[in-house]
Predict the 3D structure of the following.
Amino acid sequence: MKKLIIVISIITLSLASQAQKVWTLDECVDYAMEHNVQILQSLVSQSNAEYQYKKTKSGWLPTVSADASQSFGFGQSPSAYGVYVSDNSSSTSFGISAGMPLFNGLSLYNQTKSSALSLDAAKKDVEAVKYDLKLLIMSYYMQVVYNKELKTIAEKQLALTEEQHSKTQQLYELGKVAESNVYESAAQVATAKSSLVQADNALMLSILDIVQALELETVEGFDVVSPEIYAPVESLILPSQESTYNFALEHQPKMEAAYMRLEKTYYDVKATKSAWYPSLSLFAGYSTGYYNYYSSERETLPFWDQFSNNGRTSFGVRLSVPIFNAMQTKYNVKMSKLSIENQELAISNSKKELKKVIQQEFYNAIAAEQKYKAADETYHAAQLAYQFSSESYDAGKATLLELNESKNRLFKSESEMLQAKYEYLYRLQVLEFYNQ
C-alpha cells in the first residue's frame, strides 16, 4: 500500500510540474514562430513564389509533345504521296515534335530575374510577419509581468492592512483608540481584498491575451519570468535615434522587401520591352502515317510497312519578327513603367512611416525613462513617510486616517513606479528590435 501511495505521489508531482510551465520571453517568441497561423500563411505564400520562380526558370528547357489523329475522306482523298485520289479513304497519323527557344529578346532572362526577386521579397515578408509578431508577444509579455507585480503589491497591501486591523483591535481593547477606528480598519481590509481581486482579474486577462496570441489551448498553469532576470533597468542604455533609423532603413524586413520589389519592376519593364524584338527558336520533329482505301482498285499496304515507309524527319530554326500588334507592347511598357513609379512612392512613404515610428518610440523611451526615475524617487520617499506614520500611529501620535493615507500613497507610488519601469523596458526593447 505504501508503494502504491508513493507511485501515485510521484505521478501527481510529475503532472503538476508539466502543467505549471514558466515561460521566458524568448520561449514565448520561439513558440509563436512555429505555431502562429499568419506565419504559416506567409510561408505558403513563400512556397508559391518559389514554385513560380522554378516555373519561370524551367522555360529555358526544351518542350516535347506527341500527337496522333484519325481522319476519313470521301471523294477526293489524300494519299501518302501528297496527291489527292478519287477514292474514299481513312488515314492515321502519328508525330512527335520538340522545340527550344534560342533568343526571345531576353524576355525569359528578365522574367527569371523578376521571379527570383519576388521569391526573395516573399522570404522577407515572412521575416516581417515574424518581426511584427515578436513585438506583439513582447507587449503582451510585459503586460503580464506588470500585472503580476500589481498583484504582488495588492497582496502586500492586504497583508499590511490586516496587520493594521489587528493592531487597531488590540489598541481598542486597551482603550487607546475609539471603536470607530476598528470599523474603519475593517473597511480598509475589505477594500484591500477588493483591490486584490481586481489585480488578479487583470492578471488573468493579460495572461489570456498572450496565451491566445501563442495559440495555446488553455491558460491553466501558464506563467512568465520577469525580464529583470536578464538585465537590471539601471544598466540599460538608450540607443541613438539616428543610428536606429539608418540601421532599420537597411535591415528591416519590410524595407528590404520593398527594395527588392522595386528592382523587380525594372526587370518587368525589360521583359515587356522584349516583345519588340525578334525571337529565334529551334525545332525538330518526326511524323508518319497509315492510309487505307476502301475500294479494291487501289492496294493498301500493311500498317507496319506504311508506318516505316511514310516516316518523315524534320528540323530547323524559326525566326519570328514582330511588325505590328495593335500598339499592345507600347502600352504594356508604359503600364510597367508606372509600376516602377508606384513602387518608388511606396518606398518613400515607408521611409517616412519608419522615421515617424522610430521618432515616436525614441521620445516615448526618453519620457518613460524620466517618468521612471521620478516615480522611483517618489516611491522611496513614500516608503520613508509610511514608516514614520506607522511608528507615529503605534506611539499614539498619528490617527488611523493619517496612517491609511500614508499607506495608500505608498502603494499608489509603487504601482506608478512599476508601470513606468515596465513601460521603459518595453520602449527599449522596441528600439533594440529596430537595431537587430
The longest strand covers residues 89-103.
